[in-house]
């Protein structure tokens, strides 16, 4: 952390300037506050005072989980409002929030004048804001609770905190939760001996059990991650995720097509054996691709399909306790070649209306108590780094964590692999839409080349 004392006269200046004069690029006092904070010239008491004067924080988060929504309304609200800041929760799709930030910028609203203070974000959405210079700045290691995160570039353990889908975070977002892409199965319907460990074995199972499997349609992130996981295993060079971490601008489209072709050929080949498929080779039928993770889960719970998939290794325990899943549902290790893991973050836009309140809110949600609460109550694995906690708190995390539902933390950790470079996501989604959803007859290389050009040019 980097903290410096701040002269009393300057503290008064920033606290009293909470409603200062505006400017074309933002309110003058908000810009001065940001610059002083990022330069390490403000102590935390000065931030708290300004946050109290701002009075509120506009917090935008994905609202697709009622468990998360309830936790935000209770635990998150208590921890933030305990710092003297009113929490205004706004549930929204993250891409819509990014569009709102972009619209604020296009209309000339700078710091202190925008709509969004804090956004739960990662991947390509973070990259869009970073590339357009629409983030507050490198604030993460200036927060008091940053001591609970590995943020040293020279420490390999910091990599998951310092990179977001291949994009350097540069301290512009704070880790909030860790997620590993997991498959779950109802063991009352699928015997242990029949549970696949590879996509090759899954295809055999699908052929023997037509209509009992499907996946979410990209560009929903669950569907895209399913495709990415398959792509790692089917990499013709046998190097798994490695080539997919590169920025697509540095990869020739013909080479990209070569690397991803086996995965997309697998996707087309198994269509007849998906839910709604024709049931035999050459007869694709009308395969059903649910539009959301919730829609996939509903079909799993109703017994239409035998596999579910989601980010969140503790979700099975939560959903069994809530009565959504029967007691026979459990996590599985799939595929054994690697299970994509990434972190999600909290970021502050460059046009945040209440920048000090945003910093205070993120710091409150970065405490060990907040991360433990989120783990215990809704099964979100902590975004902080447990080895940095004191022994008593480390013990609490171990004792109070939900059940992992048929797998072990060691087995999951041994199969962690990173997500693709954020710049690749739109390319994969575009290729899936044309080659799979539309069943285009164009050459695969041409489809990839066009998607590549649209993304990088």
Short description, anyone?
The chain is α/β, with parallel strands linked by helices and 457 residues long. 43% of the residues lie in helices and 12% in strands. The chain folds into 2 domains: 178 residues, D-Maltodextrin-Binding Protein, domain 2 (3-Layer(aba) Sandwich); 151 residues, no CATH class.
The CATH topology of the largest domain:
D-Maltodextrin-Binding Protein, domain 2
Mean pLDDT, all residues: 91
What is the fourth-level CATH superfamily of the largest domain? Answer: Periplasmic binding protein-like II
CATH architecture tag of the largest domain: 3-Layer(aba) Sandwich
Major beta sheet summary: 9 strands, mixed
Oligomeric form of this entry?
Answer: single chain
Question: How many domains make up the 3D coordinates?
Answer: 2
**Helical fraction:** 40-55%
Give the overall silhouette: globular
Number of E-type strands? 11
Strand content: 5-15%
Runs in which pLDDT lies below 50 for 5 or more consecutive residues are 1-24
Outline the structure in words.
This protein has two domains: 57-176 and 343-400, Periplasmic binding protein-like II (D-Maltodextrin-Binding Protein, domain 2, 3-Layer(aba) Sandwich), CATH 3.40.190.10; 191-305 and 421-456, no CATH class. Helix 4 (66-81) links the parallel strand 1 (56-61) and strand 2 (86-91). Strands 1, 2, 3, 6, 7, 8, 9, 10 and 11 form a nine-stranded mixed beta sheet that branches. It has a two-stranded antiparallel sheet with strand order 4-5. Helix 17 (422-437) runs antiparallel to helix 18. The chain has helices spanning 8-16, 28-38, 44-54, 66-81, 94-106, 123-131, 159-162, 199-208, 221-234, 253-269, 293-301, 315-321, 355-365, 368-378, 391-400, 409-414, 422-437, 444-456, and strands at 56-61, 86-91, 118-121, 163-164, 167-168, 173-186, 307-311, 329-332, 339-347, 381-382, 416-417. 45% of the residues are buried. It contains 18 helices and eleven strands. Helices cover 43% and strands 12% of the residues. The chain has 457 residues and is of the alpha/beta class. The radius of gyration is 23 Å and the shape is globular.
């Amino acid at each position: 952390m980097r903290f410096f004392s701040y002269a009393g006269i300057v503290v008064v200046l920033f606290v009293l300037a909470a409603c200062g004069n505006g400017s074309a690029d933002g309110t003058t006092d908000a810009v001065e506050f940001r610059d002083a904070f990022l330069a390490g010239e403000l102590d935390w008491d000065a931030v708290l005072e300004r946050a109290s004067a701002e009075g509120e924080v506009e917090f935008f988060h994905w609202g697709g989980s009622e468990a998360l929504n309830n936790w935000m309304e209770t635990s998150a609200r208590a921890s933030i409002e305990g710092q003297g800041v009113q929490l205004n929760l706004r549930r929204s799709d993250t891409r819509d929030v990014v569009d709102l930030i972009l619209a604020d910028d296009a209309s000339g609203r700078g710091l202190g004048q925008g709509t969004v203070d804090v956004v739960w974000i990662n991947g390509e959405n973070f990259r869009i804001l970073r590339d357009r210079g629409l983030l507050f700045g490198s604030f993460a290691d200036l927060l008091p609770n940053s001591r609970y995160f590995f943020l040293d570039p020279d420490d390999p353990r910091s990599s998951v905190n310092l990179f977001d889908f291949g994009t350097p975070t540069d301290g512009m977002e704070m880790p909030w939760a860790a997620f590993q892409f997991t498959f779950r199965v109802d063991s009352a319907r699928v015997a242990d001996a029949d549970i696949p460990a590879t996509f090759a074995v899954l295809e055999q199972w699908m052929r023997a059990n037509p209509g009992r499997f499907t996946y979410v349609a990209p560009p929903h992130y669950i569907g895209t991650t399913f495709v990415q996981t398959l792509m790692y295993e089917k990499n013709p060079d046998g190097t798994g995720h490695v080539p997919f971490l590169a920025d697509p601008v540095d990869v020739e489209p013909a080479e990209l097509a070569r690397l991803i072709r086996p995965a997309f050929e697998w996707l087309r080949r198994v269509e007849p054996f998906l839910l709604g498929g024709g049931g035999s080779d050459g007869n694709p039928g009308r395969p059903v691709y649910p539009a959301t993770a919730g829609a996939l889960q509903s079909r799993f719970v109703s017994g239409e399909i035998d596999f579910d998939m989601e980010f969140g290794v503790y979700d099975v325990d939560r959903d069994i306790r809530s009565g959504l899943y029967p007691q026979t549902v459990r996590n599985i290790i799939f595929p054994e070649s690697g299970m994509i893991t990434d972190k999600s973050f909290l970021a502050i836009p460059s046009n945040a209306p209440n920048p000090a309140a945003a910093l205070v809110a993120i710091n409150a949600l970065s405490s060990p108590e907040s991360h433990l609460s989120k783990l215990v109550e809704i099964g979100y694995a902590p975004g902080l780094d447990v080895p940095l906690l004191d022994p008593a708190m480390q013990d609490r995390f171990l004792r109070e964590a939900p059940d992992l539902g048929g797998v072990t933390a060691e087995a999951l950790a041994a199969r962690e692999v990173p997500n693709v470079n954020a710049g690749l996501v739109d390319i994969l989604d575009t290729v899936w839409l044309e080659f799979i959803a539309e069943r285009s007859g164009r050459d695969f290389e041409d489809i990839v080349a066009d998607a590549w050009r649209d993304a990088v040019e």
